């Protein structure tokens, strides 16, 4: 598809900036509440490697739950199809930090992106790696081609101090034998990988793993097959935005993953990967401007996975 992506990004940016959208920066992780709410950037990487940007696309921010797409890929490369014995692939229809379904479903989280599922995924990485955080960072660095990527210690500590709910979820799953690590260590690694900081450009580059069907970027560990990439994209489409996954599919029509740092990374399979960042969130914890930008982008493009 020949496309003037640079001009498209500019148009989308200007249109969204003119909309006066009002959201709330996440403050339940106190350190996240300190970010400048006016930041707004977009980066698009076409599958032939061209990079297009607008706004604050080079500034690193807290990727939070977007990290769960990378940890999912790692755990899938270790366990292959056995992964699905520990975590499901159904949308939850509940908030990202909800515990309600866990009891009736015997400690098997609905999907890898709600916090319960992401904690199981982190546990799997801890079972396979002596230095799990270093391995996650190595993978993200390899995928984005940038070895400067790290995590913000303050943000991680800030979340660790406010992690009663994630601890409760973890203990509960441990009672069903679906968590094997020590809970304090698990929460530490989880909060550290959520506190990884990346720019829109770096995120879009790393998401080439998903838009390029894994063909161009090899993943460390066992190589992920085209079919495995397809499955992860399907989970991003159905579960990447928690209880707003339907809305995102309806308005944007791309598989993607959001984080409470205000980032969204999404892909058009076979064409491009894209990352948007704007910290103010809507009530479901997804970036308000980020969603709007992607909605306008696919509308102008006249093209989505649908
Ligand atoms: N670290 C955050 C948490 O566990 C991630 C949530 C998110 O980005 N949706 O609450």
Write the layout of secondary structure elements.
Layout: H1 5-17, E1 41-46, E2 51-55, E3 61-62, H2 67-79, H3 100-104, H4 115-128, H5 132-144, E4 150-151, H6 153-161, H7 164-175, H8 183-194, E5 196-198, H9 200-206, H10 208-211, H11 226-239, H12 245-251, E6 256-258, E7 263-268, E8 272-277, H13 288-301
Antiparallel strand pairs: 1-2, 1-8, 3-5, 4-5, 6-7, 7-8
Helix pairs in contact: 1-13, 2-4, 2-11, 4-7, 4-8, 5-9, 6-8, 7-8
What are the key terms here?
306 residues; alpha+beta; five-stranded antiparallel β-sheet; three-stranded antiparallel β-sheet; 45% helix; globular; binds glutamine
Low-pLDDT regions:
none
Principal-axis shape equals: globular
Bound molecules: glutamine
What summary fits the major beta sheet? 5 strands, antiparallel
- Arithmetic mean pLDDT: 94
Helix coverage percent: 40-55%
- Oligomeric organization of the protein chains: single chain
Q: Tell me the strand percentage band.
A: 5-15%
Total DSSP E strands: 8
Q: Which structural class fits the helix and strand makeup?
A: alpha+beta
> Count the helices. How many?
13
For the CA atoms, what is the radius of gyration? 18 Å
Q: How are the strands of the largest sheet arranged?
A: 2-1-8-7-6
The helix-strand sequence is HEEEHHHHEHHHEHHHHEEEH
**Head-to-tail CA distance between termini:** 16 Å
